[in-house]
Specification:
Layout (H helix, E strand, L loop, with lengths): L2 H25 L2 H10 L6 H8 L4 H9 L4
Length: about 70
């Protein structure tokens, strides 16, 4: 087995890995919901999410301390 055989084997392994990633991303129907949710993350309202979880940020605490509404 010489270097060219190893190169050919590495090419085949890389191509199979690439096909596996493509299948995982587009072929598995269970991932669609997760990917759709992740795609909407930049548009989510962080303040509403934090309020829903019962968390308050540093800015909210500072406003409350000053007596201002958030």
């Amino acid at each position: 087995m010489d270097i060219n055989d190893l190169r050919a084997l590495m090419t085949v392994v890389s191509f199979v890995t690439f096909l596996g990633i493509i299948w995982w991303a587009f072929g598995v129907k269970a991932n669609k919901a997760r990917f759709d949710e992740a795609a909407q993350l930049p548009f989510s309202d962080e303040a509403a999410d934090r309020a829903e979880l019962g968390l308050s940020g540093f800015a909210d605490a500072a406003r409350a301390k000053e007596g201002k509404a958030p």
